[in-house]
Amino acid sequence: MHYLRKSTSFVKMTWILKEVTMMNTIKSTIHTEAIFSDDEQHRYLLKKTWDEKKPACTVITMYPHLDGVLSLDLTTVLILNQLANSEHYGAVYLVNLFSNIKTPMSIKHLKDKEPYNQHTDIHLMKAISESKTVILAYGAYAKRPVVVDRVEQVMEMLKPHKKKVKKLINPVTNEIMHPLNPKARQKWTLK
């Protein structure tokens, strides 16, 4: 009886070893590039690359939340998940209408606080020119009077690239939405 227990243990151990040898290790690297102003008040561009063989996509939102190099905010995570799972893209440029990351949210849009500068637009255009698709995802906040002028400026810059510009659309309201909108947690509707 004692011998049978050892034999059963040996059979179990052999089975466990077979399980281990049938595992597959998958490794992945996401390369991050971020461009900041010298004083680090502005983040102009954040690029995440996971497959250099596939085209890039630019996503334009309102403000950069964090540095985005080592720490990721929920918006960045949701965008990465959507684009990586779509299998159409291998990189994303995350750019914003406003590039200032240090000013409190309530005053970011005030002109005297420099919510953006000429470098914001330079890097916005760099991202757009290097992308197959541009997704506008700044949401309903862009309808506020203090933001409308900036949206119009960016839309003017996008005119030569209008064929590749899409809007992240709320399927219920048919209006542009931000990736944090609960409706954006499903497969994205782009128009």
From TrEMBL:
Annotated Pfam families: DUF1643
Domain of life, per lineage: Bacteria
InterPro entries recorded: DUF1643 (IPR012441), UCP032209 (IPR016992)
UniProt name for this protein: SCCmec staphylococcal cassette region, isolate CMFT535
